[in-house]
Amino acid sequence: MSADKSTSWSYAEGLPVEDDVLRRARERSHELGLFAVTHGVAAALTVLAASSKAQTAVEVGTGAGVSGVALLRGLGPRAVLTTIDPDVDHLKAAREAFIESGSPANRTRTISGRGQDVLPRLTDAAYDLVFIDADKPSYPDYVEQGIRLLKSGGLLVINDALDKDRVSDPAIRETSTVVLRKVGKMVRENDSLISAMLPTGDGLLLAVKR
Ligand SMILES: C[S@@+](CC[C@H](N)C(=O)[O-])C[C@H]1O[C@@H](n2cnc3c(N)ncnc32)[C@H](O)[C@@H]1O
Questions:
Q1: d(Cα 40, Cα 74) in Å, to the nearest integer?
Q2: Which of 133, 136, 141, 145 to mutate to test the pocket of ligand 1 (most atoms within 8 A of CB)?
Q3: What is the pLDDT of residues 153-190, one digit of tens each?
Q4: Known Pfam families for this protein (predicted)?
Q5: Starting at the edge strand that comes first in sequence, how are the strands of the sheet with 80-85 ordered?
Q6: What DSSP string describes the chain?
Q7: How far is the CA of 176 from the centre of ligand 1 (A)?
Q8: Which residues face 60 on adjacent strands?
Q9: Could you give the maximum distance between any two Cα atoms of the chain, in Å?
Q10: How many CB atoms are located within 10 Å of the residue 47 CB?
């Protein structure tokens, strides 16, 4: 391999040109001490939402709405995004971003609560897309719930799946790394899923439910 992969990664992350709506959502994320999805992940989410033609999407980990705006921009005009976060300040910032993006209020359902409590209350096989970007220790539960929530043909998207390049090194046993390694294995070994790992951002694990 001739070129440095990290140079290509930085190049790819630098390609998406973001507008003022996403820039302001990123500023609010920063002020709240949150790590929003990277530029590359935001662009990928818009493409994935558009290509999946999803009508119903769920996000765990709203933050200040960077990923939510990216998803809404790919989803169809009648699609609804349900997004879950226990922090009311994060949800308030996200609502501002959704309004600024011009998305009608009835296209987003913001739910204040923990993913562990809210996801089990959502209907089986009723969603086309599930995006996970929240507390890492709960990822295995969110993946299980996500698979239950997805329709056949639905798409599961897991952010930070390479955990800052630590997942690939078996000697690293930090809690978040161990959890994300487990999540990768769960997804790969689940016969009901077709999966792929993209190196975008901090690793974007994709899986389609058969
Ligand atoms: C990395 S930020 C999400 C960033 C957001 N996806 C974006 O790109 O703008 C993680 C979010 O997960 C939320 N969170 C923490 N624990 C959670 C839980 N148990 N259930 C759902 N969300 C949780 C945090 O409040 C925080 O807003």
A1: 14
A2: 133
A3: 999 999 999 999 999 999 999 999 999 999 999 999 99
A4: Methyltransf_3
A5: 108-112, 80-85, 56-60, 127-132, 150-158, 204-209, 193-198
A6: --S-HHHHHHHHHH-PPP-HHHHHHHHHHHHTT--PPPHHHHHHHHHHHHHHT-SEEEEE--TTSHHHHHHHHHS-TT-EEEEEES-HHHHHHHHHHHHHTT--GGGEEEEES-HHHHGGGSPTT-EEEEEE-S-GGGHHHHHHHHHHHEEEEEEEEETTTTTTTTTT-TT---HHHHHHHHHHHHHHT-TTEEEEEE-STT-EEEEEE-
A7: 15
A8: 84, 132
A9: 50
A10: 12
Sign of CA dihedral 32, 127, 163, 25: negative
Q: How far is CA 149 from CA 74, 121, 156, 170, in A?
A: 20, 10, 10, 31
What is the per-residue pLDDT across 114-125, written as a single tens digit (0 to 9) for each? 999 999 999 999
Measured in Å, residue 210 CA sits from the centre of ligand 1 at: 28
- What is the β-pairing status of strands 204-209 and 193-198? antiparallel
- Could you tell me if the CB of 37 is within 6 A of ligand 1? yes
Q: What's the whole-model pTM score?
A: 0.98
Domains of the chain, earliest start first = 3-209 (3.40.50.150)
Task: Name the residue of 26, 38, 87 to mutate for ligand 1: max ligand atoms within 8 A of Cβ.
Answer: 87
Can you tell me the distance from the alpha carbon of 9 to that of 22, in angstroms, rounded to the nearest whole number? Answer: 21
